[in-house]
Design brief:
Largest sheet: 8 strands, parallel, barrel
Oligomer: single chain
CATH superfamily of the largest domain: Aldolase class I
Strand order of the largest sheet: 2-3-4-5-6-7-8-9
Mean pLDDT: 93
Bound molecules: 3-methyl-2-oxobutanoic acid, zinc ion
Low-confidence stretches: none
């Protein structure tokens, strides 16, 4: 059986999409999880995009072992390539991933250059990138809408200049599987290209990303580019877990495998949701909450007799396990640690202490602590953003006849602050206005979501908020059995996120 390399772009193409931005620390966590998952290449970011991206790529390059190649993206110009190399060069196995569009529509309306100029640019800057490292990936952006002969000319220029792998991106998710048949056939007819490894990178605008990627794998692709949960620009990229499990479950058909440890899939997917605050759609293949749930009686009956009646893969094969240990208020550190291990998490001591303390507080309010409660606690602590502002105490008066009011006292770096007072359209609005009053920040709420973590009267409320100061948005998450308190915690976490990202600048400009 042959192996196809998994190139994960969760931290680049995935992170690039609205709502999925991550801090450097969060990206490092995700990169370590991807390494454990067993992907071959991690595209850590686009260093020329922002100083933050540069720092994250450099930090990720510094922490990963030689099990994974770390790729940094660059456009075909000197500045991008210099920055990408500077950021990624400390990786054990660095790669420069350079790209330029080859379709006429991009040449005419975006790049404003002729085909000849494009070929010159490819020759010059692929050779420049190659002066830093032998591992050069060349991507022909919008390849699937490019003139096929010109596309092949572009690949030949890239390979002559030193590209070690060529990528076929379906940038706008336009291709049908058969388009890859034609492109790969053309490439394989060229003496210069036929032995060069090729890769595929599909977007999901027409819902074809995984099907197209698998077709390319069937045609011999050496690498397939994808993201966890399929996140990415617009409708997303090909979903890693779907590609990997297709190859596993239909191994006789594809005769191709990956080095991914499939039992890490659910854990990695959950980590991503925890970090970004964006849940996976319930009916999503492999990682959605319903992917292994059997609701209809006839299905349940079949599954009880023999799981294979309605399941093509076992939940265990993707790391979905039955709850074994149930926790309550008498559970100690040891049981809690075992529970985390059973769920696939091993936390450094300081973070364990914080989550354990939160668990004890919760256990006082809630009889049985479920896995979902623990996931919510982990999500609450995942950002490791310093809790500059914390809730001390509050009083809310809520009414359907008189104004809703809130008086709140916060602590800043452990010191009580003067009280904040405000009215609002409802109790939560009043609480948020009172926090603005106490901190002096002029913030608006741009998004508010609430859901029950589990069922039952003592269920925790999980609140996600997005606040805005000017154009910049910051997210926060809070959980508590009391939904007002969960909302206050989420709002304060968003403020702490803003203070962490802006540093002194946040405090100065009120
Ligand atoms: O979709 C695309 O074309 C890309 C390239 C940078 C590979 O993301
Ligand atoms: Zn892309």
């Amino acid at each position: 059986m042959r192996y196809v390399q998994i190139f994960d772009s969760t931290l680049r193409d995935g992170e690039q999409s609205p709502g999925f931005s991550m801090t450097a620390k969060e990206k490092i966590k995700m990169a370590l999880a991807l390494e454990l998952l067993g992907v071959d290449v991690i595209e850590a970011g686009f260093p020329a995009a922002s100083p933050g991206d540069f720092e994250s790529v450099s930090a990720i390059a510094g922490v990963l072992s030689d099990k994974c190649t770390v790729a940094a993206l660059a456009r075909l110009n000197k500045n991008d390539i210099d920055l990408a190399w500077k950021a990624v060069s400390n990786a054990k196995k660095p790669r420069l991933h350079v790209f330029i569009a080859t379709s006429d529509i991009h040449l005419q309306y975006k790049l404003h250059i002729s085909r000849e100029e494009l070929i010159d640019r490819i020759s010059t800057f692929v050779a420049y990138a190659r002066s830093f490292t032998d591992d050069i990936e060349f991507s022909a952006e919008d390849a699937t809408r490019s003139d096929l002969e010109f596309l092949v000319t572009a690949y030949k220029a890239a390979v002559s200049a030193g590209a070690s792998i060529i990528n076929i991106p379906d940038t706008v998710g336009y291709a049908a599987p058969d388009d890859f048949v034609r492109i790969v056939k053309m490439i394989k007819e060229e003496d210069l290209l036929k032995n060069v490894p090729f890769s595929v990178h599909c977007h999901n605008d027409l819902g074809m990303a995984v099907a197209n990627s698998l077709e390319a794998v069937r045609l011999g692709a050496d690498q397939v580019e994808c993201t966890v949960n399929g996140i990415g620009e617009r409708a997303g990229n090909a979903a890693l877990e779907e590609i990997v499990m297709n190859l596993k479950v239909r191994s006789a058909y594809y005769d191709t495998d990956t080095r991914v440890d499939t039992r890490q899939i659910i854990k990695t997917s959950k980590l991503l949701s925890m970090i970004t605050g964006i849940k996976v759609q319930p009916n999503k293949a492999i990682t959605g909450a319903n992917a292994f749930a059997h609701e209809a009686g006839i299905h349940q009956h079949g599954v009880m007799e023999n799981r294979a009646t309605y399941e093509v893969m076992s939940p265990e094969s993707v790391g979905l396990t039955e709850n074994v240990i149930v926790l309550g208020k008498h559970s100690g550190r040891h049981a809690f640690e075992e529970k985390l291990q059973e769920m696939g998490f091993s936390l450094p001591k300081e973070r364990f202490d914080t989550v354990f303390a939160d668990f004890k507080l919760l256990a006082d309010k809630k009889k049985v602590i479920t896995d979902k409660d623990i996931e919510a606690l982990l999500k609450n602590s995942i950002s490791e953003i310093p809790k500059t502002y914390r809730l001390d105490r509050y009083i809310i008066s809520s009414s359907n006849m008189l104004s809703n009011t809130c008086c709140i006292r916060l602590k800043k770096n452990g010191e009580p602050m003067p009280e904040g007072n405000a009215m609002g359209g409802g109790p939560i609005d009043a609480a948020f206005n009172a926090i603005n009053n106490a901190t002096g920040f002029e913030l608006t709420l741009s998004e508010y979501k609430i859901e029950a973590v589990t069922g039952g009267a003592d269920a925790q409320g999980a609140v996600s908020v997005r606040i805005k100061r000017g154009e910049a948005a910051y997210k926060g998450y809070g959980v508590d059995p009391n939904i007002i308190e969960a909302s206050i915690k989420a709002y304060l976490n968003a403020i702490n996120n803003m203070v962490f990202q802006l540093g002194e600048a946040a405090e100065a400009a009120r």
